[in-house]
Amino acid sequence: MNLRARVYVEKQKKDGESKLKARFSLLKEKGVGPEMIRKDATMRRIKAEIRKANERLASIAAQEKLNQERVQAKEQKLAAKKAEREAAIKGTVEEPAGKKEKKGKKEKSGKEAKPEKKKEKKEKKAAPAAENKEENK
Questions:
Q1: CA 64 to CA 53: how far, in whole Å?
Q2: Is the dihedral of CA 58, 64, 65, 66 positive or negative?
């Protein structure tokens, strides 16, 4: 919902409430019972307009709250970056906290044995395939 529309939606709500009061007093003067007032089509339409205005106001409020949270998060992020820069200038911090160093790979003691096993497995698979070709001939 457009945040600038808040003023117009509030005005629509106030107008609807005043119409509702006027219609209610008119029906009371005519001597209409409460059951008929509840069923009156004009009253229901006016109440629907008020409900719509309330929903619009709620969505505007939610959007404003979200925008405010975004602004605060942005300010906090900028403040953190500024503090990091100041600390780096003073020499207290060598690297920014946001970047992590990559871990080096660990050396394994049996590193040479694994490639040999793979070669042996490939040879075993290739041997039966060669035998099958000879048998088919």
A1: 16
A2: positive
**Cβ contact 56:13 at 8 Å:** no
Give the integer Cα–Cα distance in Å for 46 and 23.
Answer: 9
Q: Which tens digit of pLDDT belongs to each residue from 36-87? A: 999 999 999 999 999 999 999 999 999 999 999 999 999 999 999 999 998 8
Radius of gyration of the chain (CA): 38
What's the confidence (pLDDT) of residue 87? 87
Q: Are 23 and 46 in contact (CB under 8 A)?
A: yes
Confirm whether pTM is higher than 0.85. Answer: no
Alpha helix locations (H) across 1-112? 6-30, 34-39, 41-90
